[in-house]
Amino acid sequence: MNTTSPSTTKQVFRVIIQAPVEKVWATLTQKDVVLPFFFNSVMKTTTLAAGAPIQMRTPNGKYVAVVGDVLEFDPPRRFSHTFKFTNLDDPACVVTYELKPIEGGTEFTLTSERVPVGTKTEKYMAGGGKFIANVLKAYVETGRPSLMARFVALMNVLTGPFTPAKCRTEHWPLEKKVR
Amino acid sequence: MKPDSMDLVFHALASRPRRKILDVIRASPGCCVGDVCRYFEISRIAVIKHLRVLEQAQLILLQKNGRRRDLYFNAVPIQLIYDRWTTEYSAFWASKATDLKFLVEAEIHKSPAPSAPRKRTT
């Protein structure tokens, strides 16, 4: 509709997190640790700044689930990067995290744009956005992932052996450009 | 989720027109108030009142886009309700139950496809 071309769509997810902006930002942008709100993946990057490559890898580092390039990195308010699933041939979409201080906490908004309509990427992003917003909230507020996140961690372990070979880390050097 | 914010979500959802509005916005992300009004007999003012209730519950998000405001559905409040009463075990089996429900009901409502004729019972 309107400005968005019919071939792509935009999804928005918002949650109020009862923690200061700095804490939410620090949690969101952790490198090299297992992130429950990112489906138990590990963020790999050179240095977090515009133009830097970014990857979400499995905890053992054997597989790369998501690749992208950082578009904006403006602590502690705005973080945006391109986002492509390594197991799909869909083009990259754009993910933006916005943090806004409000009374009693932080308004966290996750926006995914340029999501190709009718693709698996669209389906994954719809479920993923909701999941990330919600599990990040639980993780920042309580220090531990929610039940759902622990379930996903378990499923990851179970489905690991079925991950396609093209997702193996050796096929996705960090320097490889995505856009 | 604070108790009062959950009240807002349940209040917002406890209305048939508001649930319909959510369906409309979810199906066309980035639509405007005028687009939503087209689906309803009620006045534009009434639609705007409903939108305000949904916005207070954070079930819809308004984003400025030049002179207009784009409407987006926000699934997070519903996910928070889901998480509160669901465990790993119940989530798995409850979704098996709903999958079966949707599958069977879709079969019933589907008009018989020409390529797949119904089996004769006689």
Describe the structure.
With 179 residues, chain A is α+β, with helices and mostly antiparallel strands. In chain A, 25% of the residues lie in helices and 35% in strands. Chain A has helices at residues 21-28, 120-142, 147-159; strands at residues 8-17, 34-35, 41-45, 53-57, 64-74, 78-85, 93-102, 105-116. Chain A has an eight-stranded antiparallel β-sheet with strand order 1-8-7-6-5-4-3-2, with helices on one face. Chain B has helices at 3-13, 16-27, 33-37, 44-56, 76-85, 88-109; strands at residues 60-65, 68-73. The interface between A and B is medium-sized, with 27 and 25 residues.
Main attributes?
heterodimer, A: 179 residues, alpha+beta, 8-stranded antiparallel sheet, globular, B: two-stranded antiparallel ribbon, 6 helices, 2 strands
Query: Could you state the order of secondary-structure elements of chain A as H and E?
Result: EHEEEEEEEHH
Overall body shape of chain B = globular
Helix content of chain B: 55-70%
C-alpha Rg of chain A, in Å? 16 Å
Total count of helical runs of at least 4 residues of chain B: 6
Helix content of chain A: 10-25%
Strand numbers in spatial order across the main sheet of chain B: 1-2
* Helix and strand element order of chain B: HHHHEEHH
* Beta-strand share of residues of chain A: 35-45%
Coarse morphology of chain A? globular
Integer average pLDDT of chain A: 85
Largest sheet of chain A: 8 strands, antiparallel
Largest sheet of chain B: 2 strands, antiparallel
The whole-number mean of residue pLDDT values of chain B reads 86
The number of distinct β-strands of chain A equals 8
Total beta strand runs of chain B: 2
Short account of what is shown:
The complex is a heterodimer of chains A (179) and B (122). Chain A is of the alpha+beta class and 179 residues long.
